[in-house]
Amino acid sequence: MKYDYVPLPERQPLKWPDGKRLALIMTINLEYWDLLKDTTDPYYAGGPPVIPDSLPGNVPDYPNFSWREYGQRVGVWRMIDTFDEIGVPASCTMNAKMGLERQQTIQAALDRGWELVAHNYEQGDLMTNYQFDRPAEQSLIRETLRVYEDVVGRKAKGWLSSSLRSTTQTVDIIAEEGLIFFCDLMNDEQPYLIQTPTKPVVATPYSVEINDFTFFHRRGMSTSDALDVLKEQFDQLYREGETTGMLMNVGLHPHIAGHPYRIRALREFLAYAKGFDDVWWTTREEIAEWYLDNHQNHIPA
Known about the structure:
Blueprint: E1 22-30, H1 62-86, E2 91-94, H2 96-101, H3 103-111, E3 115-118, H4 134-152, E4 158-159, H5 170-176, E5 181-182, E6 192-194, E7 201-203, H6 212-218, H7 223-240, E8 246-252, H8 254-257, H9 263-274, E9 279-281, H10 284-294
């Protein structure tokens, strides 16, 4: 994977469509975990467990499995209701097994016209398992994209790896498969181009800082603390957006943000951000397609 180092002061001002100052992406990660793995190695599920004592993959870990499944059964629906109440869209990621096993959730996103981004096949099978087996990684990506097309009814345009753990060849493979954006990199607040042997791919940065896992499980924030961080991030990027358009991504997980005592942070932040007319409530696909046509005015290749 190759991309140029171009620090922010050396770029031209980024001018979002219609003069918007800040592109805002609210990401709901729709993820499915297998209960069992055919291995005696510890089961790494791609995120902090609620009970930290790991078990072998071939032994069921019901507390952690059902804690995550809470998001599929209850949390995601509370989040969907919140987005509907405020009247703003989400951008969802979807691993293939979520599309196969939890179709009602995917249909709810489709019914609302929300974006769905291909997000690996199963959450606990990281791409890094295939760093030294490119054909196996390519096969996994192709199967993920096949399921995506069957479930969603159109071809995927972008990719987010489980836990953002990709390999040195992942972006080259997705470019070969016709995708146009990649979400695993967290090194910017604007899009930029990644060069591949096939074609450029747009980096649409994700964030582990502005992320409910970080707020609540890594740093032990309260609901009010998390709301304050979201507003602080938004306010600063909005201020910078007067000079050059910025991008804010909020990473959400239904088994984290979807609990009753946390949903206020999401509801109040959405209502706060909706009060600004020059915010672009957008998708990664919209950003990628626009940037492929306009990158020369920002960072010339």
